[in-house]
Amino acid sequence: MSKKLKIGLPKGSLQASTFELFKKAGWSIKAQERSYYPSVDDPELEIMLIRAQEMARYVESEVLDCGLTGTDWVLESGCKVKNVADLIYAKRGLKKVRWVLAVPEGSKIKTPKALKGMRIATELVNVTKKYLKANKVNAKVEFSWGATEAKPPELADAIVELTETGSSLRANHLKIIDTVLESNTTVIANKKCLADAWKKEKLDNIIMLLKGALLAETKVGLKMDVIKSRLRNVLKLLPALEKPTISELSNPAWVAIDTVVDEYIVRDLIPKLRNAGAKGIVEYPLNKII
Amino acid sequence: MSKKLKIGLPKGSLQASTFELFKKAGWSIKAQERSYYPSVDDPELEIMLIRAQEMARYVESEVLDCGLTGTDWVLESGCKVKNVADLIYAKRGLKKVRWVLAVPEGSKIKTPKALKGMRIATELVNVTKKYLKANKVNAKVEFSWGATEAKPPELADAIVELTETGSSLRANHLKIIDTVLESNTTVIANKKCLADAWKKEKLDNIIMLLKGALLAETKVGLKMDVIKSRLRNVLKLLPALEKPTISELSNPAWVAIDTVVDEYIVRDLIPKLRNAGAKGIVEYPLNKII
Amino acid sequence: MSKKLKIGLPKGSLQASTFELFKKAGWSIKAQERSYYPSVDDPELEIMLIRAQEMARYVESEVLDCGLTGTDWVLESGCKVKNVADLIYAKRGLKKVRWVLAVPEGSKIKTPKALKGMRIATELVNVTKKYLKANKVNAKVEFSWGATEAKPPELADAIVELTETGSSLRANHLKIIDTVLESNTTVIANKKCLADAWKKEKLDNIIMLLKGALLAETKVGLKMDVIKSRLRNVLKLLPALEKPTISELSNPAWVAIDTVVDEYIVRDLIPKLRNAGAKGIVEYPLNKII
Amino acid sequence: MSKKLKIGLPKGSLQASTFELFKKAGWSIKAQERSYYPSVDDPELEIMLIRAQEMARYVESEVLDCGLTGTDWVLESGCKVKNVADLIYAKRGLKKVRWVLAVPEGSKIKTPKALKGMRIATELVNVTKKYLKANKVNAKVEFSWGATEAKPPELADAIVELTETGSSLRANHLKIIDTVLESNTTVIANKKCLADAWKKEKLDNIIMLLKGALLAETKVGLKMDVIKSRLRNVLKLLPALEKPTISELSNPAWVAIDTVVDEYIVRDLIPKLRNAGAKGIVEYPLNKII
Amino acid sequence: MSKKLKIGLPKGSLQASTFELFKKAGWSIKAQERSYYPSVDDPELEIMLIRAQEMARYVESEVLDCGLTGTDWVLESGCKVKNVADLIYAKRGLKKVRWVLAVPEGSKIKTPKALKGMRIATELVNVTKKYLKANKVNAKVEFSWGATEAKPPELADAIVELTETGSSLRANHLKIIDTVLESNTTVIANKKCLADAWKKEKLDNIIMLLKGALLAETKVGLKMDVIKSRLRNVLKLLPALEKPTISELSNPAWVAIDTVVDEYIVRDLIPKLRNAGAKGIVEYPLNKII
Amino acid sequence: MSKKLKIGLPKGSLQASTFELFKKAGWSIKAQERSYYPSVDDPELEIMLIRAQEMARYVESEVLDCGLTGTDWVLESGCKVKNVADLIYAKRGLKKVRWVLAVPEGSKIKTPKALKGMRIATELVNVTKKYLKANKVNAKVEFSWGATEAKPPELADAIVELTETGSSLRANHLKIIDTVLESNTTVIANKKCLADAWKKEKLDNIIMLLKGALLAETKVGLKMDVIKSRLRNVLKLLPALEKPTISELSNPAWVAIDTVVDEYIVRDLIPKLRNAGAKGIVEYPLNKII
Fold it and tell me: How deeply is C100 buried, as exposed, middle or buried, from its count of CB atoms within 10 A (0-12, 13-18, 19+)?
C-alpha cells in the first residue's frame, strides 16, 4: 500500500467551504452522509472529519499527521502542535475573527478589572481563565453549551464570545469591552509528520495550492492593448508588486498587457486606465495564482 | 406586576416538540428567531430557553424556579435540584433513552473491566467517570464535542453514547457492552420554588395538563352500541382500569358505551368487540385525558 | 344549467387560509396555478379570485353577487355594497386589525393636528384623506406601492399603515399616534343578490357554516363523569352560555357530562373540575359548532 | 420464531399514502431510505416494498402471501392470484381510475375500429392487445417507458393511458374515445395463504381495519340535542342507513343524538337540522368506523 | 464625513438581479432582511431600496440623487428627471419589454378605436389615458391591483399589461392589438446631481462599469494560433468591430490571436475558423469589457 | 420554412445535464414544465424529449433524424441505427458505466455458468438473454420495473444492473461476478440523415461543439512567465500533446507561456513548474476547446 498523509478537516459548519476550497486547489472530496471518512481522488491522502475543537488533540497524539482548524481551538486545547501555515480568508487584506469580552449595554463594567467576582460564560474556558489571570482578576468562568450571547444579564454577568460583524451581540444588547483573542484558520502538524521528508513535501504542496486557490478568489485577470507611446502612463497605474506580462503585437506600435489585480480595486482602476490610453480592457476570472 | 413562575424549556432539538406539547396542554408559546425569551399567553408564566445541559445549573442557582430537561444532564451537572415529575414520551409502556458503553464490533473488549488504560470518548464525562469508579476500572475519559460514534477505533477505544434504536451505533460498526445510564425527560425545581405555595400549585397544574396531553397521544376514544344481553361479554374485553361510560338509549334494549383505550390495542380489540356483539364501533381522537 | 351564486374570494396572502376555512365549512376548492377561476365541489357556486382591494368594485357592478374582503378596502373603494356578515378570526374575543397613523420615534409630531403640510405615505389614500379632513388638517397624501413602514423619515413624514402586533413598526423605529380605522374580514353583497330569495338563502347557509367552522377553531369538547351528589358543584364551574348535555349512566348514581368550552379556559378549568369531583375528564377536538 | 404474514406494499408514488392508511388502521411502518424491508410494530407481519407492476408475480410465486396493488397490474401480469378485497379511495361514492384510449384532438379516429394498422403506445401492453383482439382490430402496440401522453401524433397514433381527471390528456391535446379498463386498489393473496386459517384471519382483520380507516376519511360525527316533540322531524333528516345513538338527558323533555354521516352532506344537512329543531349541533372528526 | 452619491435601487423582483449586476461591476451590496438601507463596500455610495414605481418621485424631490428604474414608471409618474443611461439587458441586440393593449381572443375589438365606452384595466393608468387621448378614444381606465391578465372578459373589456414573451397573455386567451409603450431599465438623475461635478463623475464611472459587466454577459474570449500564411483568412471571419490582439510566437511562422466575440455567434464561427486554419481554439469566460 | 435537423434528447434524469452541455456548446434550450417539445434558439434545430430507452426506435423509424442516448439502450432495442459519436463524460480518461451480473454476497454462485435454472431480474432483458446464450446458460430472465438491487435473494437469484461506483450494490450486500456490458452516451442517426449533406454537416458541427464543451470541463488554462534560459526545463514538464503558445515579452530575456492542461494534473504540475523556474503561474477556466 502506498504511503499516505493523514489529514483532519473540520466537521460541521466549515465542512462545505473547506471541501470547496480543496476542490479549487485540485482535490475532489466526497463524504457519504453518515460516514466520517470522506473519499478523495488522491491515493496519497487519507482524510478524517474532526471537530475543530478536537483537531489539536488528535494531531498531538499522532492519530493524524496534520489538520485544519482555528488557532483559538489550538490554544484552548493546550496541545503541543506546530502551526505550519495560516489560511486567511481575506477580501481586503487581513481579516481574522475575534473572541471578545462583552457585557450588557447598560452595565457598569467598563474594564476587565471590574469583573471581580462575576460569572463569565464562554465556550473557551481555558483561554478565558488565562486572560483573567493575566489581568489579575478573580472571576467564575462557566462553560457554555451554546446561545452564550443570550445569557447576560440573567444567566451570566459577562461573556467571552466569537464575533465577526458584531451584529449578534448588538441584537442581544451587549457591548464589547475588550478583545480576548484573535483567531484564524490554520494548518497544524505534529513533529513526526514534519520530520518525515515525504509528508513534509506533500503537506507543503497542498498548502501552496490551497493558498493559490484562496488568492484567486480575491484577484482577477486584466488584459488591455496600449499604444507604446502611452505605455509608461498605463504601467504607472498598475500595482507595483504584480509584474504585468507585456507582449508584442503584430502592429509594432502597440503592446498587449496582461496582469493580475485585486478585484476590489478594479472599479477604481478601469476609469483611470481608460483615461491613460488603454483600449479593449477585458477582465476575466482566475482559478489559482501561485 | 403579577406573580410569575420562571420556567426553563430546553433549547435546540427538543424545542419544537416541547412547544407542541405545551400547545396541547393549553399554552401557546412563540419564539422570535433570535430571542431566547419566548412569549406565552399566560401572564403567570415567564419562559427562558436554556440548553438541557445547563438547566440544572440555573435552577439550582435560583435564576429559574423550575425547568424541563433530561435526568442524564441533571446527574452530569451534579447540581442539587428536585425531580418533581417524569414526563415519559411513551408509546407502549415506559420508554426511556439509554447511555450505553459501546466498542468496535470486532473488539476483544467484552466487559467494563477490560477498559483498563483505554481512551473513552463521551459527552457525559462525570457520569462516565462515576460508572468506571463503581466498576473499579482505571481509564481515560475524553470530552467529545460530537460525532462520538465515529471515533472508534482510531480516535477512541470505546464510547459512552446516547441511543434510542441503536441504528447509528450499528452503522458505525459498534456493539453495546453495557448500559451506563437510563434517562427520561423530567421536571426539576429548586427548594425555594417548592416551598412557595402559589408556585407549587401552579407547577402542579402545569404538570397535570402536560401529562394529560401526553396521555392523549397514546389513547383514543371508542364508542359503540351493544344490546344489553351481550353487554357483559363486551365489557370483559375492555381494559379493566379505564371505566367506560355506559348510557341508556331510547331503545331500552340497547346501551351506548364510550371509553378510552390505548391506541395500540385497537387493531386487536376491534375484531374481538365485533365478535362479542358491538355495533357501530367508532374510534375518535382525543386532546387531553386527566 | 343550474342556478349559481357568484362569489369572490380574496386572491393573494389570504387565499390559502380562506380555502382552508371553506374546507372546514364543507366546500373543497381547488385552484390551478395560473387560473383565477378555482373549481369547487358545489354546482351552485361559481368562485372568482379577486384582490381584496377590488372586491367591492366588482360586487357593486354586479359582476359578482357577493364576496369576502376587508371592511378597510370596502371603505377605501367608496363602492355601494352591503356588509352581510363579519367573519372575525378571533382567539380571545374580538380581534380586529388596525390602520394606524405612525411617525418616527423621535418625532415631535404627537397629534394628527401636527401633520399640517407634511407628506403622508399610505396604501389607503381615500380613507386617510377623509380622516385628515375630519381632523381639519391639510397635508399631502402619497400613494405607497409597498414597504411603507420604511419610508419615514426620509421618504415621508408620517404613514398610515396596517398593523397586527406592531412589531414591524417597532423594527422601523416608528410610534403610533392614532388609530385611523379598524377593519375585519366581511362578507359583502349587492342589492340584487339580497333581493333574490334563492341567492339570499344560499349565502346565509354558507355564512352559517363558515361561522360554525370559525367557532370550532377556538372551542373544544369536554366530557366527564360526575357522581350526582357533586353534579351541582361541577355544573357551576361550566360556562353559563353553553348548556351541557347531561346523560344518565347505567350506574344510576352517576351522570355523564358532555359540553363545549373555549379552548383557552381549559387549562384553568380542568384543575377546578377535578377538585369539584369530576372523573375521567376527556378533551376532544371539534370540526364545527352551529 | 412467531408465525408471520408476508405482505407486499406498493413502492413508489403510492408508498407514502399506503403507510398513512396503515397508520390510521393501527400499524406504524417505517422505511429506512435505502432499504426495501420496512419495519412495522407488529411481530406477526413482514412487509416488503414491491412495485405495483410486479406484486402479482411475487404473490403468485409465493414469495409473498399477499399484497396491495391495482387491479390493472394484476390483469396485465396474467398471474393467478385471488382478489380478496377492494380498497376504494372514494370521496363521493365509488371512484375508480381509468385506462383510456386517446387520440389527438383533431384526429379522424373516432372508434377503436379505426385503429387498424396504427401504432398504439402504452405501459399496459397485454391488456391493450386483449382489448384490440376483443374489438377485432389489428394494430401495433408499443411498450412506452413513460411520457406516453406526449407521443401522439409524432411518436404514436393513439395511446392507452391512465387518467384520473383528464387534465394531462387535455394539456397534450388528446381526446378520449374509449375506456379500456377501470382499476382500483385491491388486496390480492395466493391460494396457500387463504388456505391457512391463521393467515386468512390475520389478513381479514387487517382488511377490516383498513376499510374502517378509509371509511372514517369520508365521514364525521354529528351530535345535537333535540326536544322530544321534534325528534321525529330531526330523525327523518338523518340518513336511514346509519342508526343514530339516542340517549336520555337529565332534562327528560330532551334527548341527545349522536350519529355518523358523510362529510359531504353536512353543509346541506346542518341548515335543515336547525330548521327542524336541533340545538347545539357539533361536528367532530373520526379515526375509524367499523 | 465623506461626500456621498445617494442612489435608489429597485426593491422587489429586480432586487436580486440588480445586486448581482453591481457585484459584477465591482460593488458588493448586502441587505438585511427587514432593512431598506443595504450596506455597500464603498464609502462614497449611499443606497436605498425603492419601488420602481416610486423612484422618479424621490429623485425629483431630491431625496435621492439618482436611481435605477424602468422608463415606463418614469413616464407614468410624470416626474421631471433626466434619463442618464439605458441599461438594456440584451442577449441578441436590443430587447425591451412592452406594455401592450390586449383583448380576449374571440373579441370583435381589433383596433384602439373600437374601445369606445369599454372598461380597460391596467397598472399604468396615466400612460394609458394619454394613449387613449392620442387615439381620440373615450374609455374607462381602472387601476388594477394585480392579476390583470385574468380580468377579461368578465372584469374588464381590455387590458394594458407588461409582456416579455406573451406566454401569460396566451395562457389567458388574450390577443395583442397594439403596443402602448416600450420600456427598458434606465438610470435617472435630477438636475442638481448632474450639476455637481463630483457626483456626475461618480455616476458616470458606475454606469461605465455596469455597462462593462452587462456586455461581458453576452461576450466570450476566443484564443487560437494561426500560421501567418493563413492569418488573413482567419481575420476575415472575425467581427470587424472588435479588433483582435495578435501576438508573435516563439515560432516565427505562427501568431496567436486573442479576441472578444458575441457568445451566440461562437457555434457558427468555430467550424469556420477551423476550416480557415485556426488551431487550438479555446473559448474562455469574461467578467467585464470596457 | 427553413430546413431543420430533428434531434431527440434524453428525457428524465439526464435532461438537466444534457441541456447544460448544449448551453456550454452554444445552444440555449428551454422546456415548459408539461411540454415535450423544448424551444431552442436555433431555427435549424427541432428538439424532442424522448426516453433513452426509446430513442433508437424513433431514430430508426425516421420520426427523428438523430438523438442522444446510451449504447446500452441502442443494443437492447435491437434497432438499426448508426453510432455517429461517443460523448464520454470523463474526468480521468475514459469512464464508461457498466451493467454487471451480481449475486448475494454469501451466494455460492461464482460464475455465469452457475446461473442454470435461476431467476435473473433486470431492466435489460434482451442484452441479458444474449449474454446467457453466449455463455450457454439456461436461466429465467424477468423484467424488473425498478429497485432491482433489492431483489436478491428473495425476489431473484441474481440481477443484471447498471453501476457506476458499486455503492448501491454493496449497500444491498451484492457482489459483482461479471461485466455484461459497458455503455456510454452516444449520438445515433439513421441512414437517411447521414445521406443528407446539410443534415450531416449540421450534426457534425453540433458534435464538434459538444465535444469542445465536454473537453473544457476537464481542462484548464495555465499561464506563466519564464526566463529564456530555463524555458526548456519548463517545457519538458508540460504535456507533449498540447502545444503551448509561447509569446515574446517586452523584456527580451523572458517569454510568456499559455497552455491548456488536464485539471487533475495541475496539483502535481504546479510545484514542479515552480521548481523549474516558472513565475506568476495563473490558472484560469475555459468554456470550450476545439
Answer: buried
